[in-house]
Predict the structure of Acyltransferase 3 domain-containing protein.
Amino acid sequence: MESKENIVALTSIRFFLSLLVVIYHTQLYLVAVLFPTTSSLNTYFNFGQTAVDAFFFLADLFFRINTFKHLKKYLYIGT
């Protein structure tokens, strides 16, 4: 069983990685919208970028669900 310190450390790392992904995609979006050149629009709005976004979204969702399951044991949430 994992200790509380390990749970907090893993949660912090996952939050930091999620924050980096959000910042990265936000700046890509802002560049595409504020400076609408063909290359910036093609960089952000293409199938490859959508696939990467979907992958990070699913990975983040998995980590959040997994983290909640671990925290539930320590925070006595639910039954």
Remarks:
- Residues 4-75 form one domain.
- The chain has one domain: 4-75.
- DSSP finds three helices and no strands in the chain.
- The longest helix spans residues 4-34.
